[in-house]
Amino acid sequence: xxxxxxxxxxxxxxxxxxxxxxxxxxxxxxxxxxxxxxxxxxxxxxxxxxxxxxxxxxxxxxxxxxxxxxxxxxxxxxxxxxxxxxxxxxxxxxxxxxxxxxxxxxxxxxxxxxxxxxxxxxxxxxxxxxxxxxxxxxxxxxxxxxxxxxxxxxxxxxxxxxxxxxxxxxxxxxxxxxxxxxxxxxxxxxxxxxxxxxxxxxxxxxxxxxxxxxxxxxxxxxxxxxxxxxxxxxxxxxxxxxxxxxxxxxxxxxxxxxxxxxxxxxxxxxxxxxxxxxxxxxxxxxxxxxxxxxxxxxxxxxxxxxxxxxxxxxxxxxxxxxxxxxxxxxxxxxxxxxxxxxxxxxxxxxxxxxxxxxxxxxxxxxxxxxxxxxxxxxxxxxxxxxxxxxxxxxxxxxxxxxxxxxxxxxxxxxxxxxxxxxxxxxxxxxxxxxxxxxxxxxxxxxxxxxxxxxxxxxxxxxxxxxxxxx
Length: 470
Description:
The chain is mainly α and 470 residues long. The chain is built from 19 helices and two strands.
């Protein structure tokens, strides 16, 4: 039973060979852009409406609660990422601190998180892109713009196309992808700034009453959870993304400095952006109205009579939402890569292209899976299940940080989580509470996913890992 607790060394790699290493090409501006690119996306462009439908104006508190939990987790990530600047994120930290079996479960949860986020954002992008498709190609079949959950729908073709296109771009190289991401992030933030500036003159404080029509937590029709806390569990999807930065640790030029700036900086910036944009949207339009739209910010602009601006916002989403897919697909491929390099998954998945310095095969595999999921599932279902995987990873990172602080208090650390004895437990309790407020169906699916993962580990990972051969 030693396989349950065997651990990799914190200070050195185990079983890594030439052709399976990543090139350090990124600086802190790239990392901040990666974080902003991942965080500011479907959450603000699309899920704002869903959250407002669940919590009313109280969705502002939902954002604040989810942001506070993520902030605590971000500090834990910053310490572990600078301590172990390798690909793999929470999976790698868990492997070094808590052992192989826990690391497998965390890695398996990360696979769920990143793949589903790619699919969810593909669907969010498709909601905006479909508007332009209908205008440019009025005869385009509606059955190819919606998945089977919509009457008459067959497949969400735009979601499939964007997932595959981003996968192709990532295969070209990390620095090239990061540069494209940087440019698109500027486009995205400019559009959101324009939205706030134009929405503010129409601000009406009456739209904030009643502030919390469904209370902190309640049950609506068909057992659907409503209120501020269930909305926070969903809005949590809108905040994470900084964890994808930690997967870039091995490709960072100065990880001891750049990772801290990227993780903490992007989290602080995005929390401010979310609160301002959500407040402007609610002030300009009653939440009960724009919550029914798949493009809430576009709806708000249209309700104010700014049709041209509405199209600009929709266009910016079409251009910029792929940055979210790009960052999470990047993160997913690096988790796959790290697990394969450790022998936990087939070694072929850790093969790096000599030309681009990227794991091309695993990147394209991630794109294919995301394309299939995005083509056939709804945004809300995908986002909630992705949240379950992320919450598990956040708990693992906070626990790893705390255990290592107690086990090796004298170990040099480039970044130290302030008040670690408080921040760590807050991250764990907060994540646990958000998980509790996810739909029961989501919790059940997450359990099934991990039971299947345990079976895969017992059959393959347990006997094939590098440590099993030592």
